[in-house]
Amino acid sequence: MTDRTAFDPLVFGRRLRHHRNERGLTLAQLGERVDRRASYLSMVENGKREPKLSLVDALAAALDVPTADLLEPEAPDRRSELEIAVERIQQEPLYRSLGLPDLKVTAGTPDEILEHVVGLYGELTRRRAATPAVEEARRANADLRVEMRERDNHFATIEEIATDALAAVGY
Hints:
The chain is an all-alpha fold. Helices cover 66% and strands 0% of the residues. It is built from ten helices and no strands. The two termini are 48 Å apart. Helix 2 (27-34) packs across helix 3 and helix 6 (78-89) packs across helix 8.
């Protein structure tokens, strides 16, 4: 879980791209408005660079949106949410261990592909957590709970040890 109060460059970048696209601006056009190169703004949009607060204010003014709107902690739409999830998934050790090449998400990548990657990775992590050893421990724990209920949580051996320990300390 991410800290909802911390600045998230990836979310900020997707919010910036969302507002820029809504206004029909290219990176170069936005760059002219805030005196930054398109390549730098591209890195900001992709979460590779963290802008200074003065640039955040300038970007908000250039896009005619409140600064707070650019700083919201949630992705601006489902597509952005999926792109962020795929980006983060690909950094996970479990994903890396699969030896798969990175999926370069572009505007042409269908949402369904992103949904599949996110869904499959979620299922993979869920199944990985359910290893045979984990399943065996769950079964043993369930069996113990049944036995405890049947005995009304009374185990004579434990009672004897506790009685002896209490007597030893004079209680």
